[in-house]
């Protein structure tokens, strides 16, 4: 059974916003587990490097902060603010879904309990986590740049860090999923992917009906400079 890569990717994008993740506490779990993944740990280490390079030495001495404390404390800050971003944007998606329900949503949710679909989604998990991490760090970096926060970029998209880019599991996961779907004879998986693509089109149509544009994702980090100041990261001149 053959599926296009586009169909597979659409299914994965929708899985992160499916009813499984409809509640804010589940989105918080998604972010927390993403940070605990190998790619999340690599990004956290990169954040630690940026914090150690950017923190004001005199301020660190005054506050009694050791360099090795910056990474774990910085991780907690980004995890908290990243969760806030995902919960806020997710709430907007939930509102659109409620106002424009997809007719096949219940069937798609039932199919998520099928063994073949569960296996597909389990293989996909590193990709889902990586997409969450990329969103969080890219929009964090954007807010840092726009706000004049004196902190180096972390996201490999911003830094061009090839080693970190190579740690991103998205491409390898796409390949694994394509192979799994190609070998599968599961009618349930086929139907799940079909419904996922239909749901994506329906969601796109619903989004086009929004009368006013939603806040830009990086704006959900407004105020993070206060938390970073506690780690001796300056803002402005």
How would you describe the overall organization of this protein?
The chain is mainly alpha-helical. Helix content is 73%, strand content 0%. It contains twelve helices and no strands. It has helices at 5-15, 24-36, 38-54, 57-63, 67-99, 105-111, 115-147, 156-159, 162-167, 170-183, 187-207, 224-229. α5 crosses α7 (115-147). The longest helix has 33 residues, at 67-99. The model is unreliable at 1-25 (pLDDT under 50).
Q: Taking all residues together, what is the mean pLDDT? A: 85
List the uncertain runs.
Answer: 1-25
Order of helices and strands: HHHHHHHHHHHH
Shape by Cα distribution: globular
Strand content: under 5%
Helix/strand class: mainly alpha
Total count of helical runs of at least 4 residues: 12
Distance between the termini: 59 Å
State the share of residues found in helices, binned by percent: over 70%
Largest sheet composition: none
